[in-house]
Amino acid sequence: MILLPLQRKTARASFHYTRRVSIWYNARMSNRFEAECYGDT
What is the CA radius of gyration of the chain? Predict the structure, then answer.
């Protein structure tokens, strides 16, 4: 079938995208937390 490799490729792409977004979100939240703790703007 043609559908299965396409689904697998889409799942892999969405997994990489979600992982990249979560890494960026965590980095942004930790940076904001440090800025609030140390008083940097």
Answer: 18
